[in-house]
Amino acid sequence: MARPVLPEDLPQEANQAYGCMAIALGLTALVMVVNLLLGGNPSGVLGLLLTLGTFSGTQALRRRARYGRTLATICGSVLVLIQLGTIVLIVALAATFGALAVILTTLIGLVIVALVVATLVFMFRPSVTAFLEATPAPAR
Asked: Where are the transmembrane segments (predicted)?
């Protein structure tokens, strides 16, 4: 039986990827709640699910599960594409929304995209790859 991953075994980049996705998850949830409170529809459910998938992948990565990086990469890539598409759509329909709503939504969307891209970059750093490829020592 393999020993658990100790904090000192964990590369700093894996923790940074996890932190970025925790912030992105909070922002995505906040945007969805505000949208619902303002009478909008729950159209952000897919984005929230993809953010949860990416966050779950970073959690699995920290436990040295190789599938975590794959899960986070797939969910994160689709999330970035959807976020960018949403930003373009909101900017294109700016006359329908108020100027403040367009600015805030665009800024929050860009922050989420930046956090997800940073997560993807951190997950493919050489130290994280070495961490995933290392065989943990057996527990005593």
From this structure: 20-38, 44-61, 73-95, 101-124
